[in-house]
Design a protein that fits this description.
- It comes from Pseudomonas azadiae.
- By secondary structure, the protein is of the alpha+beta class.
- The protein has four domains: 94 residues, no CATH class; 138 residues, Ribonuclease H-like superfamily/Ribonuclease H (Nucleotidyltransferase, domain 5); 68 residues; 54 residues, no CATH class.
- The chain is 48% helix and 16% strand.
- The strands form three sheets. Strands 1, 4, 5, 6, 7 and 8 form a six-stranded mixed beta sheet that branches. Strands 9-10-11-12-13 form a five-stranded antiparallel beta sheet. Strands 2-3 form a two-stranded antiparallel sheet.
- A hairpin with a 4-residue loop joins strand 5 and strand 6.
- The longest helix has 28 residues.
- The protein is flat.
- The model has no long low-confidence stretch (mean pLDDT 90).
- The structure holds iron/sulfur cluster (SF4).
- The site of iron/sulfur cluster (SF4) has 13 residues, from helix 13 and helix 14.
């Protein structure tokens, strides 16, 4: 039996097939085309949004934006690969009307429009808000580390430099001793003095370099620095320490759409709750907002700031643990009664614990040694000479948070299901577990804005379908 046969390559056609015939009515590229057509590129700040009246015409930023949105949607981030797609991919040919910009032009467009990508991302979020895809009932905040372009081999930190300096000092002393030996050597002995001198000079140059780096970092007030990408920081990731950025997202619970994102240099999330929640509230233009985040966001000062801004946060409070014994259970902080007027604690034995010191936002109270040493409950209270109890500077905000979390235990479960979807997609689908392609915070922000736009676009199409999206954009 014969095989299924294709059409002969040299077959001509009386009515040639147009690109329009090849792209189905419900194809993704039609949504990208309709979305970009609606954008006011001048207001969004795109470079060359107004064509020049003289000289060689440039590419329309709308065409290049379409190419990038399509590229990020299809996990194609490199400008060279996008150039190749322009020459062989029918969908891109349809989208760009067969334009074929070279990789340099494509790369320059991404480099020159970093801020405009963030503005474009916000416009799509506004569209989703208008059509009801984003309701703003509950927002989950989460962060994840994305690797930077720079290599960890080019990363310096003060501790490492100091260790290096000690080693260099020892080796210099050793070489100086060898030089002395060479000076004292008898004429007949063969000690190569010039080789020792050269090695010594090299060590001294390295030491000077080391000390200069330390002095510079001290004057800049920083503990770490990457010579390849000054904005990037060494951060803990599931794969171990990496030079990375901490990407923060605020995700709407309704359809897991990202309504706000940011790229930060902070290795942890403790300072991110308030700025992210406030930015999400502003984006939603609501007077009140409920947000949820994991224990990594626990920060009493920010809990209070959120309450004052009309934001109800649901975060597992993470606080300093009071003294514990390995062998036995000791009294918890809750067993001590706080007297707000006197600013002191009363212990289970009825003795007073007074304020001893303030330490990084913690208030430390202690009992008198004489009280504890004669106390029959000491075995249940402390193994030390006296008992200490710590109280956070924003303890009341912590207590309110604890009450909220006890009343709404389902919040932590909701949080996980909302935030895992976007980061799973961004990391595996868009970045392929790879790293950023653009350097510095600004570059990482531009790339993340494109990635978030592609993610939101995909999510909106999954929920509404292409035809409905086209109707709503029309
Ligand atoms: S050990 Fe000290 S703090 Fe603890 S119950 Fe006794 S007196 Fe109070």
């Amino acid at each position: 039996m014969a095989y299924i046969q294709g059409q002969a390559r040299d077959q001509t056609s009386l009515f040639p097939v147009s690109l329009e015939d090849l792209i189905p009515e419900d194809h993704l590229v039609r949504v990208i085309d309709a979305f970009v057509a609606k954008l006011d590129l001048i207001r969004l700040g795109f470079d060359k949004a107004v064509p020049k009246s003289t000289g060689r015409p440039s590419y329309d930023p709308a065409d290049q934006l379409k190419l990038y949105l399509y590229g990020y949607f299809q996990r194609i981030r490199s400008s060279r690969r996008l150039e190749a797609e322009c020459q062989r991919n029918i969908e891109v040919m349809w989208l760009l009307n067969r334009l074929k910009p070279d990789f340099k032009t494509i790369a320059d467009f991404r480099k020159d429009n970093k801020q405009a990508f963030s503005a474009t991302c916000r416009v799509f979020v506004q569209f989703c808000r208008t059509v009801g895809l984003i309701t703003g009932d509950l927002v989950a905040i989460d962060g994840s580390k994305f690797q930077a372009v720079a290599s960890s081999r080019r990363h310096l930190n003060v501790k490492q430099l100091k260790r290096q300096q000690e080693k260099l000092d020892k080796r210099i002393v050793q070489y100086l001793a060898e030089l002395d030996e060479a000076d004292k050597a008898e004429a007949g002995e063969t000690i190569d003095r010039s080789a020792i001198k050269t090695a010594l000079e090299q060590l001294e140059a390295r030491q000077l370099n080391n000390l200069t780096c330390q002095a510079l970092m001290k004057s800049m007030g920083i503990e770490q620095f990457n010579t390849g990408e000054s904005d990037a920081r060494m951060m803990r990731t599931p794969k171990g320490p990496r030079v990375a950025y901490n990407v923060q997202t605020a995700v709407d619970a309704e359809h897991c759409l990202i309504l706000h994102h940011d790229v930060t240099q902070d290795g942890n999330d403790t300072q991110q709750l308030e700025p992210m929640a406030k930015a999400a509230k502003e984006q939603l233009q609501q007077s009140e907002l409920s947000v949820t985040a994991d224990a990594g966001y626990s920060n009493g000062k920010q809990f209070q700031a959120c309450e004052e801004a009309g934001i109800t946060a649901y975060v597992s409070p993470n606080r300093a643990v009071n003294p514990r014994s390995k062998e036995k259970e000791l009294f918890e902080r809750e067993d001590f009664t706080y007297d707000a007027q006197q600013d002191q604690y009363r212990c289970p034995a009825g003795k007073l614990l007074t304020l001893k010191q303030l330490n990084k936002g913690e208030r430390i109270y202690h009992a008198a040694i004489s009280d504890c040493s004669n106390c029959p409950l000491k075995g249940q209270c402390t193994d030390a000479q006296r008992r200490y109890v710590s109280r956070h500077a924003h303890e009341e905000a912590f207590e309110r948070m604890e009450q909220r979390m006890q009343a709404n235990p389902e919040m932590m479960v909701s949080r996980r299901s909302i935030v895992e979807h976007p980061f799973g997609n961004l990391k595996q689908w868009l970045f392929g577990n790879g790293r950023f392609l653009l350097r510095q915070c600004e570059g990482a922000r531009a790339e993340m804005a494109l990635a978030v736009s592609a993610y939101n676009l995909k999510r909106a199409i999954n929920v509404l379908g292409v035809r409905r999206m086209m109707e709503l954009m029309g």
